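This entry is listed as follows:

___
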Amino acid sequence: MKQRRSGFTIVELLLVIVVVGILATIVLVMYNGIQRNSKIALIKADLETAQKQIQLDQVNRGTYVEQLTELNNNTGLKITDKAELYYSVYNEADPADFCLTATLDDLLYKVTSTDPVSPGACGDQLPTAPALSTNGDSSSQITISWDAVANASSYRVEMNTTDSFTGDGTGACSAPNCRSGSGTSQVFTGLSQNTDYYFRAFTTNALGTSDESDHVSETTLAQTPGGAPALTAGTAACTTVALSWTAISPVTSYTIQRSAASSFTSPTTTTGVTGTSRSMTGLTCGTKYYFRIAAVNGSQGPWSNSVTKTTTITTPGTPSVSVTIPGQTRAGSASNWAQTSDGDPGGSGSWFYAGATISGSSCPSGTTRQFKTRIHYASQSSWGPWTGFSASTSWYGVQPLPGYGIRFAVQARCYTAATTSSGSTVGYGCRWRSGSTSCSGF
């Protein structure tokens, strides 16, 4: 005998729950639809009633009221007062007209003196977009401002690093790229220095959101470098000096000044330098220069320490020496005598002399060519002492004895007040009493 089952199985219970849920959803949707239709009917009825009251009042007054509170002997409209109303009047138009908008939750309907109730809002009651102006306050901040817009309840300003925006201004608005409020300015902070930013704005009120404004752009100020590079002068040549320095951030370039004066009077300035080294060219040989550097990033930072370097002078070539024995005398006290190893001419009396004329050994522009000399007699075992350097190209020695000769040794250098070149290779010139210019036999 089979036992009879009582109650429901789990599957049957689950099916019941699902069916009940579906029915509840259907009922809720139907209820919401009924509720929305009721609101629409309410708004339409209120607008139709308001239209009749405004038109009746216009017949009595001759014009449409400026404010709805003036209707019905200044007691206002006689409607359910559930919706929020926006009223515009156009008495100056021909013919005169009015427009009344009602909004309730997300519903929006309007009516005019001639048009029946329809979805939407009166055109002049919808907000217009603000006209933006910008100001780059600093390297990290930009202020956006605008004049107040009629019928506005709030404003929304969006920022982007490119002139490309998405959306219609109704989505979520959050910093740092979007700011909203009822005021007429917004400050965007935390921006990158020396960077272009783009902006657009929307105006909002209870009737909706405006079209987007014209786009505007602004560039943050470049951040002034916070310090100066540490400058070092490296190798110097005749017309160049190598400079190097520590990097500074932020920086777009460096400016270098050079001057022959430590006060940098009338300096030569080189701008737009990049990297951390530079060969300064076009300098004058044998000149002491002062250098300083500053970092630039939109504006210039402070000057660095100054460093000094003297350019070198190229060693001149070997001088050419031509010796004559004219058979003439000159005072021993005259200049440019080269003494013998035993001290002649000694600075007194008159002496027959041999003369040396020096040529060659050119020097760079801005330097002075100088020579020094000494003499050797074939009749003596050693050279006389070197003279001092002089710019003169004529030097003298006591005339050698008959049958003997004299040899002049000449060294050249290039001179400035700041430095001198190395001495050149020594050049020689000889003359014998016989007239020979051979230097053999010394």
The radius of gyration is 51 Å. Residues 320-432 form a domain with the Immunoglobulin-like fold (CATH 2.60.40.10). DSSP finds two helices and 27 strands in the chain. The chain has four domains: 16-125, 133-219, 231-304, 320-432.
